[in-house]
Each structure stands twice: as structure tokens, then as C-alpha cells.
Design brief:
The chain has 2 domains: 151 residues, SPOUT methyltransferase, trefoil knot domain (Alpha/beta knot); 62 residues, tRNA(m1g37)methyltransferase, domain 2 (Trp Operon Repressor, Chain A). A hairpin with a 2-residue loop joins strand 8 and strand 9. Helix content is 37%, strand content 15%. The N and C termini lie far apart (59 Å). The radius of gyration is 23 Å and the shape is elongated. The chain is built from 8 helices and 9 strands. It is an alpha/beta fold and 251 residues long.
């Protein structure tokens, strides 16, 4: 899969993608990444990409001409790519959207804003606006890197096992269950016995129950309509929590 970043700070993209799993995927040719700088399409000696907003107000707005020229250049390289602009007012990014991008068969052109944002006319050259959350950052580079990282996990070969992606938090609709590794006991804290007994049916049941528990405690809005099995497991979780709350405090 190919990614092109439209960015005023290509060095930030290079640094963000220069480590760990993403770097290995790039080195192996599983991903392709490049940057196009809108400053390269300016005509003044200062390479100006911003100007004051019409109607007044604080801050500076990115001029449409350099941004659109950069998008057009990217489309020359990836004619069928989806153009996605980073915008606080865009569609909220999610695990499902990451998977949709990965399996959709289209490369991505990720447009990163700065200052007070884009001149709204650039959105005529954009397919989708995306936000990674209800907050404002100083630029679009970090959100764009987040999107590439999340999408890359669904590309075959990027992770050691594809199951790692589909079992992650949110892929199943629930938060992930707790994970453990060796040693069996660390500073008096033991790995749950069920994970050490080799009974995979019990292990799977424990993991599902723990995922339901984590979701109920921290993100209950994700639970939605439960199957009978999940409803029974969640009832166990809630009964255990109630029993724990009723225990007298130790003095």
C-alpha cells in the first residue's frame, strides 16, 4: 500500500515512520511512503503558504494554491488514491475505518494542515475529512501518522501474525483482555492460573470475560447488543464486582 503525505514538515513524517514495525514494513516493501511539500509550489522568495483570514480573526490560513498544487502532484503519482484531509471537523477515525482503508484497495494521500487550518476551497480536491479525536493539535502530521500506523496493521505481512490485528482492542468491538508473559510470578504478582493450564477452551472463555469486564468498566458504550453467551459472562463480571464491593474494608 502506498501513502503520500502532503506536509510542510516532511522531516516529522520521516522521523515518525522511521522506527519499529512501520520502518520494517517500509524496508520490506510492504508499504511505500513519500512526502510532497506545498512550499515547493509557491512563487515568492519566502515560499509563503499562509495568509490572514478573510473577515478577520486570529492566526493564519493555508493558501489554496500551494495545497491544491501539491494534491494534484500526488494524484499524478497515485491517480486512484483516496485524498484524506486531517481536520478536527472530519469523520472520527476508528478501527473500522482503518480496516476499511486497508482492504479497500486504494492508496492514501494524507493532507496535513497547520496554523488555523485550510482555506475551505481545497476540500473540492479532497475525498474525505478525518479527525482522530475531539481536540485540536498544532498540525496534521501526527494524525496522519496515526492513520498510517493503524491502517498498516491490517496489511498482510506487516505484523508477525494477522491475528494480532483482528484480536486487538476495538477489532472485536471490545477492549482487549489483559496479556501476560514470563515469569509466572513477578514481585508477588502471579499470572492467572487459567492461562497456564493449557486448556484452550477455558483460556478463550477467560479472555472473553476479561474483555467484557474491561469494556464494561471503561467503555460501556461499546457493549451494544450482546449474545446470550456474552450476556451470561457479563452478568458473572457484574456479580463478582458487586460481591467485591460488599466486602468489609480491611483495617
Amino acid at each position: 500500500m502506498k501513502f503520500i503525505f502532503i506536509t510542510l514538515f516532511p522531516e516529522q513524517i520521516a522521523q515518525g515512520a522511521g522506527h519499529s514495525i512501520i520502518k520494517r514494513a517500509l524496508d520490506a516493501g510492504l508499504l511505500s511512503m513519500s512526502c510532497i511539500n506545498p512550499r515547493d509550489f509557491t512563487t515568492d522568495k519566502h515560499r509563503t503558504v499562509d495568509d490572514t483570514p478573510f473577515g478577520g480573526g486570529a492566526g493564519m490560513v493555508l493558501k489554496p494554491a500551494p495545497m491544491v498544487a501539491a494534491i494534484r502532484k500526488a494524484k499524478e503519482q497515485l491517480p486512484d488514491a483516496l485524498v484524506v484531509a486531517m481536520s478536527p471537523g472530519g469523520k472520527t477515525f476508528s478501527q473500522q475505518l482503518a480496516e476499511d482503508f486497508a482492504v479497500g484497495g486504494r492508496d492514501l494521500i494524507l493532507v496535513c494542515g497547520h496554523y488555523e487550518g485550510f482555506d475551505a476551497r481545497i476540500f473540492h480536491w479532497v475525498d474525505l475529512k478525518v479527525s482522530i479525536g475531539d481536540y485540536v493539535l498544532t498540525g496534521g502530521e501526527l494524525p496522519a501518522l496515526v492513520i498510517m500506523d493503524a491502517v498498516a496493521r491490517f496489511i498482510p505481512g506487516v505484523l508477525g501474525k494477522f491475528a494480532s490485528a483482528v484480536e486487538d482492542s476495538f477489532s472485536t468491538g471490545l477492549l482487549e483482555y489483559p496479556q501476560y508473559t514470563r515469569p509466572d510470578v513477578f514481585e508477588g504478582l502471579a499470572v492467572p492460573e487459567v492461562l497456564r493450564n493449557g486448556n484452550h477452551a477455558l483460556i478463550n472463555r477467560w479472555r472473553r470475560k476479561e474483555a467484557l469486564k474491561a469494556t464494561w468498566l471503561h467503555r460501556p458504550e461499546l457493549l451494544g447488543q450482546l449474545t446470550k453467551t456474552d450476556a451470561k459472562l457479563l452478568a458473572e463480571v457484574q456479580a463478582e464486582a458487586a460481591a467485591e464491593a460488599d466486602k468489609p474494608e480491611e483495617k
